[in-house]
Amino acid sequence: MSNFQVTQSVDVAIIGGGTAGLAAYRAAKEHTDSVLMIEGGPYGTTCARVGCMPSKLLIAAAENAHQYEKSAQFGVNLGKPQIDGHAVMQRVKAERDRFVGFVLESVEGIEAKHKLEGYAEFIDPQHLKVKHADASESVIAAKRIVIASGSRPAYPGAWNELGERLVVNDDIFEWDNLPESVAVFGPGVIGLELGQALHRLGVKVLMFGIGGIVGPLSDPSLNDYANTVFAEEFYLDSDAKVETIERSDKGVKLRYQDKQGKTVETEVEYLVAATGRRPNTDKLGLDKLDIELDERGVPVADHYTLQTSLSHIFIAGDASNQIPLLHEAADQGKIAGDNAGRKNEVRAGLRRTPIAAVFSEPQIAMVGESYREIEKRLGSCGCFEVGEVSFENQGRSRVMLVNKGLAHLYGEQGTGRFLGAEIIGPNAEHLAHLLAWAHQAKMTVSQMLDMPFYHPVIEEGIRTALRDLNAKLHLGPEMIDACMECGVGS
């Protein structure tokens, strides 16, 4: 071991002050006052600064513009909306700063002795070296450590040659105005949300992907539907052949083959890299530890305790490479911090049913086990069935002109238990919550059908899928084409 002078000794050191780090701090403090939270960047969560909140502000503006333009279909002729890009971005940034302010208020309420600004890395399993902005260093001795270092955007290194014409979602929310055109690489959650929003705000959008996947969907039928419905609104090629990407005087030049195989050359103002995020664990000095890592170099942790192969080290949030969502980061941080604060006693924490949403239109939602996970676990024995509903003829959806979408619900043969769902359709964020509660309660499909359904509501579509699933599980009557007791178009 190298010689070093310990600056401070604590029971629990937490690397990172985002959602997971703050949750870990609060949980650890329930057991000990000897807690130190180390943060190198600006305080404030990814969600508030550059994630879910500013993106929803941009989406809200886009939805408003889209409804204005769509109004003619209801016989209400408002004409084409006039988009003030500067005003749009001004509100996005102002409200974003307001949300960040709430987080900063909570951080400011933490005693100074519990906070340390700087970037931490391991010296050995029990010691962290912290590099401060003024180039000085501290050495922290910790009995237990929580890694909550978050994540950052990931993209091919060659794109750095594009300079300021390369942007990630973090950069978009610093724009003072909207550009005329962008090429979005990555039709995942971030790319899909931002790309569609920018399109609806008058920006020319080209979206490219690899492998044909759209959003988080793993069900082939839903993925095909998503590819079709989004491509009807803006250019989307989820399995693109892009030949060249070059910096130009005015932006970025692209040469690609379109979906008909024709070579197209065009120029856009910016390339938006939405190709995923990478856990910030590669700069923590993990090579100094004898710790089990996954294929991406991230410490492997127990799902319920967040404990790594080194019993005194825990990991939570985006850094854990599990489910990179705010509510998951908060849950994981609480579990990891609680266990770190408990000294030698480690307890399993509550892991809720997985739930995820994409705030596109139509929305996308995932609940419980995905199709891919179920197919891997039960596909070989044919032990599950799929219940389906199309929202294209669903009553309330047609009334509101949001009748695009498809939902698949999965159930287990024999037990009749509801396993999960993948949805693309209207109000999917709300449908997903109902299904997630049913999944966490370990309800069967029959029990779910015993719950009340009002008429006319979009939720009736879920009942249709449940009835289809119940029939396929041989637990209920066969589906019929029309059911007056359900209401028209349910």
TrEMBL record:
InterPro entries: FAD/NAD-bd_sf, FAD/NAD-binding_dom, FAD/NAD-linked_Rdtase_dimer_sf, Pyr_nuc-diS_OxRdtase, Pyr_nucl-diS_OxRdtase_dimer. Transmembrane segments: none annotated. Residues 357-465 form the Pyridine nucleotide-disulphide oxidoreductase dimerisation domain. Signal peptide: none annotated. Gene3D superfamilies: 3.30.390.30, FAD/NAD(P)-binding domain. Its cofactor is FAD. Residues 11-333 form the FAD/NAD(P)-binding domain. Keywords: FAD, Flavoprotein. Belongs to the class-I pyridine nucleotide-disulfide oxidoreductase family. This is Dihydrolipoyl dehydrogenase. The lineage of its organism: Bacteria, Pseudomonadati, Pseudomonadota, Gammaproteobacteria, Alteromonadales.
